Amino acid sequence: MKKTTAKNKASRQQGDAKAIIPGNAKTESLRMQKEDETNEFMTTDQGVKINDDQNTLKAGERGPSLLEDFIVREKLTHFDHERIPERIVHARGSAAHGVFKVYKNQAALTKAGFLQDPSIETPVFVRFSTVAGSRGSSDLARDARGFAVKFYTQEGNFDLVGNNMPVFFIQDAIKFPDLIHAVKPEPDNEIPQAASAHDTFWDFISLMPESAHMIMWVMSDRALPRSYRMMEGFGVHTFRMINEKEISSFVKFHWKPLLGVHSVAWDEAQTISGKDPDFHRRDLWNAIENGNFPEWELGVQIVPETDEHKYDFDLLDPTKLIPEELVPVQLIGKMTLNRNPDNFFAETEQVAFHIGNIVPGIDFTNDPLLQGRLFSYTDTQLIRLGGPNFHEIPINRPVIGVHNNQRDGHMRQTINTGKVSYSPNSLGGGCPFQAGKKEGGFTSYPERVDAYKVRERSSSFFDHFSQARLFFNSQSEPEKAHIVDALSFELGKVQTIAIRERMLRILNEIDKALAAGVAVALRLHIPKESSEPLNQSMPADGDPAKYQPINRDSSVLSSGALSMAKTVKDNIRTRQIAILAADGVNEKTLKAVKEALVAAGAVVEIIAPCQNYIISDGDLEIPVDKSFLTASSVFYDAVYVPSGVNSTATLAADPDAIHFLNEAFKHCKAIAADADAMQVIKETYFSKKLPDDFNKSTVLEEGIIISTDSADLTKKFISAIAQHRFWHRELQRKVPA
Ligand code: HDE
């Protein structure tokens, strides 16, 4: 964990001078030494010590301010220029440092150096993000999440700029500005923020069935992650890996979280957006500060060159995944995030990812979405970070030297010495030299391309529904119900009936029951016939017959990996548990349950009617983490109510405590109570909805545990919390909360 000595802390607070990029090594080290000696005093940007940072220089105590006051001028000027443009997409994000280690040598697959030696730790910087919202929007928007990893390898930086969903909305980069214009707030009134539930988004989608598969993912609970630490990551496109013998394989990248893939309920997400819009950011930060380092395994699906055309989908089509039943994921390494950034702006904000940052042993394919991204990422940094030297910003610098003849430009930091900035040269001794293959010089995979120059899309790209259906078929019943609800919500927010109807047509192509469910909620009929073509994303002279989607079944009809129901559910590490208590709580059971939960890796907080502390039945002061005012059930994964006559009487009479429990029930969370705390449970709405035989010894399949014995309660509670959510509960019982 991070050292927080007083000196470190002071230098972090004052801005660490060592972050400056060295120019001339000698002068730089002198300068930094000087800075270290003086960094306890406030100075101007010119290094002049400041005596008064409280008052502007004036002509007389009550007189006008003087222009000559370089201290106030500098301070205000700098402040006036503190903002840079936010990212056009993925503006809201959070990041962390960490390390990556390969499990075993991958020489057969790739020559990439960082995938050879299991003893080598490669530093990484990872930024998670939402896509549509602005920098200040909520973490809990229904959206795809960015999952961008910068590997600082010994052969240069490799960026794996992926998402938490394995496919994308569009097949060709030329449609990206349209997609983003459609999903962003509408341009006349800038409404709504960080939401796809509006006319322009669904207008675009309803005319473009190639989005059908991705729509299933963003309408599923994958779009509402429980935390960044519980999301999968995907490279989306098919990449290439090349070994020393120049044998290339197609590869799909996966990140599998060790804590499993979990989500929150949509109602929960909306409440969190109001109560703590920084929910994911705070979670990531706290987990790392507490030493609960998030971990993912890197997986690859490998397809030999010879199998390029073996499947019923095109490997170059980014709206398709490779079902794990066809090509299993091989886990080849592990990434651990173990250090929070020191400065949000310097690191999280200024990091510049680029899908084009690759190293020898990795290469691109002709996926037309990937190819367009190769242009966009540098282009966007030129405006966002202010010029061509953004690679010199500390967070973007490779850990190995940069040697080339690029020079000058806005904000150049490096002081290149000598006369020679061209190649070939003799005056500089020929430096820097190009690196041969043996010296690790990058060479592109010599793929043979023999074709006409055309603006066309391959006919292998027109199957838009088979994998959308595969995804839907692979979901559990509650997950399917959530997709129907999400579509009903989103289309319910759409004002234009024709758009809703067009979407019903598309949903009907995917799955009849899905479309019927949404049609009921919208009180609309699924249009039987229409003169409008299903796909209206066509060139002016395009052949309509060619551009209409092909509707066929995938060769794999259902895939276990696509449902979150089967994710890791064998532990409660880092789960957040609320204990509701008041004065008079039984300190024995409270202590026993709390200690057992903490020992199992959970994070436990005591919530009480007041802040600071409560007094137990044995007159002990028990610290309180939050009150009912500052806490909310939506911040926790489970709730426990310990016994204690006065405590349970207080809670039973406290509407906030009862609301807490009702809401936790509504969001399908595990709930436990000592049998002697039944008085509180009986006040809840859901106790009326439980079976008649609900009594002190009942342990419901639905994750409600009442017990007289705290050891028994803890054991059952822990296994219930590990289930994460009891989604089936909401199919049977809805409660107002
Ligand atoms: Fe991006 N994308 N993207 N994207 N993308 C950006 O680059 C773009 C796409 C992704 O945390 C931008 O530095 C185009 C797919 C992530 O800093 C921009 C196309 C996937 C991040 C850009 C795509 C992504 C970005 C905005 C279609 C998943 C955030 C700021 C051809 C595989 C990285 C920036 C971070 C960011 C362009 C499609 C992931 C404008 C043109 C597909 C995770 O350059």
Q: Tell me what the CATH architecture of the largest domain is.
A: Beta Barrel
Specify the helix fraction band: 25-40%
Text of the CATH class of the largest domain: Mainly Beta
Reported by name, the CATH topology of the largest domain is Catalase HpII,  Chain A, domain 1
Assigned CATH superfamily of the largest domain: Catalase core domain
Q: Which ranges are low-confidence, i.e. pLDDT below 50, for 5 or more consecutive residues? A: 1-25
The total beta strand count reads 18
Helix count from the secondary structure assignment = 21
Task: Produce a short descriptive summary.
It contains 21 helices and 18 strands. The chain has helices spanning 6-14, 25-38, 70-80, 176-183, 199-206, 212-218, 266-275, 279-289, 344-349, 368-384, 466-473, 477-492, 497-510, 512-522, 544-547, 587-599, 645-652, 655-666, 678-682, 710-722, 728-732; strands spanning 93-102, 122-130, 145-153, 156-163, 233-234, 239-242, 248-257, 295-304, 330-339, 362-363, 576-580, 603-608, 613-615, 621-623, 626-627, 638-641, 670-674, 704-707. Helix 19 links the parallel strand 17 (670-674) and strand 18 (704-707).
Structural summary, described in words:
- By secondary structure, the protein is of the alpha/beta class.
- It starts with 5 loop residues before the first helix and ends in a 5-residue tail after the last helix.
- 28% of the residues lie in helices and 14% in strands.
- The chain is globular.
- The protein has 3 domains: 85-396, Beta Barrel (Catalase HpII,  Chain A, domain 1); 470-549 and 558-565, Up-down Bundle (Hemocyanin, N-terminal domain), CATH 1.20.1370.20; 569-732, Rossmann fold (3-Layer(aba) Sandwich), CATH 3.40.50.880.
- It is built from 21 helices and 18 strands.
- The strands form 3 sheets. Strands 1, 2, 3, 4, 5, 6, 7, 8, 9 and 10 form a 10-stranded antiparallel sheet that branches. Strands 15-12-11-16-17-18 form a 6-stranded parallel sheet, sandwiched between helices.
- Bound molecules: CIS-heme D hydroxychlorin gamma-spirolactone 17R, 18S.
